[in-house]
Write a structure and sequence with these properties.
Oligomer: single chain
Shape: globular
Structural class: alpha/beta
Strand content: 15-25%
Radius of gyration: 15 Å
Strand order of the largest sheet: 1-2-3
Distance between the termini: 26 Å
Length: about 120
């Protein structure tokens, strides 16, 4: 962990340009401070993992039963209002299942999600 922090500090202080960061994880709440520190210095922030669904729902997309932190929808919307399509890039296609334990999945665009889909 110490090595990761040291490497991140070097990147944040004097990044080569263009500077693109891919950020994943389950929860926006865990990454909010990092997102706010990265946005002023990155050219692009690609948001993936489970936390992308909070951002996608904040944009008005149906995310079905996908992971979402509803308490952070307003925060996500504020970030998107300032940076979506400029710096913040979200995925548009996903592996989708109806049951996490089934092992069955199909590929869908976010616009095709049904209320019982779970993005994985």
């Amino acid at each position: 962990m110490t090595i990761e922090v040291e490497n991140l500090q070097l990147l944040v202080k004097s990044p080569d340009k263009p500077f693109t960061v891919i950020l994943g994880g389950a929860k926006v709440s865990d990454k909010l401070d990092l997102i706010n520190k990265l946005l002023p210095i990155v050219d692009h922030l690609l948001v993936g993992g489970g936390m992308c669904f909070t951002f996608l729902k904040a944009l008005g997309n149906n995310i079905g039963k996908s992971l979402c932190e509803d308490d952070y929808l307003d925060t996500a919307k504020e970030l998107l209002d300032s940076h979506y399509g400029k710096k913040i890039i979200l995925p548009t296609d996903f592996g989708v299942t109806k049951n996490i334990d089934s092992g069955l999945r199909e590929d869908k665009n976010i616009s095709e999600f049904s209320n019982d889909d779970i993005g994985v």
